[in-house]
Write a structure and sequence with these properties.
This protein is of the alpha/beta class and 210 residues long. The chain has seven helices and 14 strands. It has a single domain, classed as Ribonuclease Z/Hydroxyacylglutathione hydrolase-like (Metallo-beta-lactamase, Chain A). It has a six-stranded mixed sheet. The chain has a six-stranded mixed sheet with strand order 7-8-9-10-13-14. It starts with a strand and ends with a helix. The site of zinc ion (ZN) has 5 residues, from loops.
Length: 210
């Protein structure tokens, strides 16, 4: 599996495109908000002749879902995320205004993912792991074959997701990371929603929250 990282929008959010030799791909958390960012994503997909199979969100905070409508329209697919985060979409327009950004259309979540679901593209199978606490519907996507985890805002290098946002829960987050992520192999590469990549083994030793 090949992974391309883009860092988009004022929140410096990581958007990932993952693909394999079949040229099928998934887009994870399209945070592209400006036309330039949207074109950058689209250009990468066309330059690499990728076929977009899925649009998946680790969670639905605005910085991770700004580009959902754009991707849905551009590639004729529906965003998939956990139903417990659907309420966040109702607040996106108001939140965007609060940050001085405009977002006219209110997207709706019509396609859902939950614990142990799988997302397939090419020869890759991502397994869905539900780790609530940063948001109630926070998901991680795990590929055992390449020892890769897309962690969204659940786990960062040396940190964890904030839990002071609507329906956040600190104990739930710590518990979920311990029971569902720290059981993965130590050499699992973790692609975070913000900042650099890390590994499960590194976080077990050095993460001060865990
Ligand atoms: Zn978030």
């Amino acid at each position: 599996m090949t992974i391309k990282t883009f860092t988009f929008n004022p929140f410096m959010e990581n958007t990932y495109v993952a693909y394999d030799e079949t040229k099928e791909c998934v887009i994870i958390d399209p945070g592209c908000v400006t036309e330039t960012e949207q074109k950058t994503l689209q250009q990468f997909i066309s330059d690499n002749k990728l076929t977009v199979r899925h649009l998946i969100n680790t969670h639905l905070h605005l910085d991770h879902s700004f580009g959902n409508l754009f991707v849905e329209k551009a590639y004729g697919i529906l965003a998939k995320a956990h139903n417990a985060d659907a309420f966040l979409l109702q607040q996106i327009s108001a939140q965007a205004e609060a940050f001085g950004m405009h977002y006219d259309e209110r997207p709706e979540l019509r396609s859902f993912l939950t614990e142990k679901d799988t997302v397939k593209f090419g020869n890759v199978t991502l397994t869905v792991i539900h780790v609530p606490g940063h948001s109630p519907g926070s998901l991680c996507f795990y590929d055992a074959a390449s020892a890769t985890l897309f962690a969204g805002d659940v786990l960062f290098q040396g940190s964890i997701g904030r839990t002071d946002l609507p329906k956040g829960n600190y104990e739930q987050l710590i518990d979920g990371i311990g029971k569902k992520l720290f059981v993965l192999p130590d050499d699992t590469t973790v692609y975070c929603g913000h900042g650099p990549t890390t590994t499960i083994g590194y976080e077990k030793v050095y993460n001060p929250y865990l």
